[in-house]
Amino acid sequence: MYNISLKIADVIIKMQSRQPLQKPTEKEKKRMVSERFDNFTYKGSGKPDILIDIDVTDNLPQVKNTKPVFITYHFQDGKENWRLLKKSGKYIYKSPLEDKKQLMEVNKDFNRVSAHILSKNPKNAYDKELKDFIMKNNGLVWNTGDIIYDFLQVLLINYFAQRNEGIFTHSVGIMDIGGDGLLFSGKSGAGKSTTARIWHKDSKAMVLNDDRIIVRKGKGGFLMHGCPWHGDFNDYLKSRIESAPLKKMFFIHHAPKNIVRKLSQKEAFSLLYPSLFPTFWDKKRLGNIATFCMDLISKVPCYSLGFVNNKKVIDFVRSVK
Q1: Is residue 253 within 8 Å of 184, Cβ to Cβ?
Q2: Of 87, 226, 279, 289, which residue is least crowded by CB atoms under 10 Å?
Q3: Could you tell me the sign of the dihedral formed by the alpha carbons of 205, 208, 213, 214, in that order?
C-alpha cells in the first residue's frame, strides 16, 4: 500500500492506494513545483480525520440515478469545473476537465472517500524521469496534486461546515512579528495581492497565504491557518502550515490615504460573507457557516481599511487599537 498524509488546519488527511505514488522528480525539485504543499506533509502517528482511498483506472466508473446538487463554472471560459451530485446518502464529486477527469464518492460526513482518477499518459510527462515511471507502471500512478487540486479544498469546506468547526475565507493572512494574526479581506481588485506583497517585502511578518485562509476556533480563541491553495503572489512558493491567533480583521479597499474605521457586527458580517466559500447546496451547513461567522465577528475586532500602496500602511495597521 502506498500512502501519504497531510495536515491542514489541524486536520489529518491520509491518502492511500495499492498503486504507486509518484514522487517529485529532480526536475520538479529544481523548479520547486511540489513546495506548495510539501510543508503540509504529516509524518506523525495521529489517527487520520479523513481517509481517502485512491483507485487509478483507465475508465472512470459510471454512476447513475444521481441528483445534481451544485455545479461550478470557470469565470473566464464558462466551462464546467466540477459538480457535486447526491445518491443514496452519499455525495459524488465529478470533474470533467480534460487533464483532471475524476470521480470521488464521499460519505455524508465528508471524512471517507473512494477516489477514482484516470491513468496517466506518458506523452504528457514533462521530463524523462516521470515518463519512464509512468510507462513502467502502465500509467496506473497517482500524485498528491491529483487530490489536493481541487477536490481536497471542496472536501474540507464541507468537512468544516458539517461540524461547524471552521470557514475558508478569500483573504490574506499575516502573522506579525509578535505572533498576532491579521486577516485582510476584500472583493476582487480591493488590494489583497498588493497587501501580501507589501507585508512580504517591507516587514518581517510572515505571509501565511495571499488568497485562502482557514479560520477555526481554538481553546484560546480563533486561529487562522495557512493552506496549500494560494493566489498569484509568486514571491514565495512554499505555502505556510503555520497558524496564528486571529486578533484583527480588516476589510480593505484602495484609498487616497490610509484610513480606518471600526465596524459594527452587522457591517462586518455583510463584508465577511462575500469572502467565504459557502455550501449553498446545504441549508444546515450554510447555517453552521453563518453561526460561526457571527461568533467570529463578535469576538474579533473588525475594521474597514482604506490604504495607499506603500509600506507606511504596515505601521498604520499596527497602530490600530
Answers
A1: no
A2: 87
A3: negative
Domain boundary among 133, 163, 193: 163
Which grid coordinates are listed for 198? Answer: 507589501
3-state secondary structure of 243: strand
Please tell me the pTM assigned to this model.
0.95
pLDDT at residue 182, as a whole number: 98
Domain shared by 280 and 309, yes or no: yes
Domain check: are 179 and 235 in the same one? yes
pLDDT beyond 90 at 3: yes
Among the listed residues 196, 97, 190, the one whose alpha carbon sits nearest the alpha carbon of residue 146: 97
Q: What is the pLDDT of residue 99?
A: 80
**Rounded mean pLDDT, 23-44:** 74
- Do 166 and 9 contact (CB within 8 A), yes or no? yes
For residues 190 and 126, the model is more confident at: 190
Q: Which domain holds residue 180?
A: 166-318
Longest Cα–Cα distance in the chain: 61
Check which CATH number belongs to the domain holding 201 and give it: 3.90.228.20
